[in-house]
Design goal:
3 copies of one chain form a homotrimer. The first copy, chain A, is of the alpha+beta class and about 110 residues long. The first copy, chain A, has one domain: Alpha-Beta Plaits. The first copy, chain A, is built from 2 helices and 7 strands. In chain A, a hairpin with a 2-residue loop joins strand 4 and strand 5. In chain A, helix 1 runs antiparallel to helix 2. The two termini of chain A are about 15 Å apart. The interface between A and C is medium-sized, with 29 and 21 residues. Bound molecules: nickel (II) ion (3 copies). The site of one nickel (II) ion (NI) has 3 residues of chain C, from helix 1. Chains A, B, C: Pfam families: CdAMP_rec (PF06153). Chains A, B, C: It comes from Limosilactobacillus gastricus DSM 16045.
Chain lengths: ~110, ~110, ~110
C-alpha cells in the first residue's frame, strides 16, 4: 500500500477525479495553493496498492500533464485592435509516492 | 514516530478532535472532499509515537466508524403522506499510518 | 527525496513561503486548523532532496519558530484605563520529514 500525493492545477482536477473514480480509485481532495505564482491548485491523496501505482501514474499524466494551449489575447496592431492567439503552458502535475505502514478502514 | 492521516466525515470531526485532545494528541485538520459522492470530509494529520498508534486507532474507530442510522424520510402512502424511518449509513474513517524519519518542533 | 510537512502559524506563512521560494524550494500550502486552541494555521508540503533537508529546516526555524512578543493590552489600573504590554508567545512550527519512494513531474 502506498499513498500517492498528487498536486495538479484546479482546472484539471475534476476531470482527473472522474478518471480516478472510473478506474476504481478513491481519492481525497484538498484545496491548496502553490508554485512560484501561488496559483490555486488541488492536492489529491490516493491510497493505492503497489501493483496499481503505474496505472494511477498514467491516469494522472493523461489528465493533468503540462501542455501548451493557444489562448486568444487582445493585441493592438497597426490596423487597430485584434486578438492574437498566444501560446501558454497549462496543467502540470507533481506526484509523490509515500510508503504506508498500516491501513485501516472503520 | 508516525504520521497518522485519518479521513473522516465532517459530522464526526469535532467529536473526534475533542477525544484526541482529551487523550493528549495534537492534530491538524484540513478541510477536504472525497469519496465517490464527493461529500465534505476532514483530513486529520496526527503525529504519534509508535506505542500510541493502537490508542489513536481506537479513538478514531470509536468516534468515526461507519454505522447505521435511522432518519425520518417523507413518504407517500395509500393513507396520505407520512414519515418513514429510513436506514442510512453514516460515518466511516480511512486511516493511513506513514513512517516519519525526522520530527522537529521550533 | 523527502516530503517535508511543516505546520506553522498563518501569520508566519507568507514570510516563510517567500523565503522558501528565494532559496529555490517549491511548496504547496494547505489551509489548516490545529493545536489545542484550534487556531488557523498553514500546512506546507515541500519536496526536498535529502542533502537540502538541513537548509529547509533552518529556513522554517528562522521564519516560524516560537518566540515571545509584547503586545499592548487594555488594562484597568487605580489611575484609570491604560495599556500594559503583555508577553505572549507567537509562532511555532511542527515539522515532519517523510520518506518518498517515487517522485514524478508531468
Ligand atoms: Ni478522461
Ligand atoms: Ni467521545
Ligand atoms: Ni526572511
Amino acid at each position: 500500500m502506498k499513498m500517492v500525493i498528487a498536486i495538479v492545477q484546479k482546472k484539471d482536477s475534476n476531470h482527473l477525479q472522474s478518471a480516478l473514480i472510473e478506474a476504481g480509485f478513491r481519492s481525497t481532495r484538498l484545496a491548496s495553493v502553490g508554485g512560484f505564482l501561488s496559483e490555486g491548485n488541488v492536492t489529491f491523496l490516493i491510497g493505492v496498492v503497489d501493483p496499481q501505482i503505474p496505472m494511477v501514474m498514467e491516469i494522472i499524466r493523461e489528465h493533468a500533464q503540462s501542455r501548451d494551449q493557444f489562448v486568444s489575447s487582445p493585441a493592438a496592431t497597426d490596423l487597430g485592435r485584434s486578438t492574437m492567439p498566444v501560446n501558454v503552458q497549462v496543467g502540470g502535475a507533481t506526484v509523490f509516492v509515500l510508503p504506508v505502514e498500516q491501513f485501516e478502514q472503520f
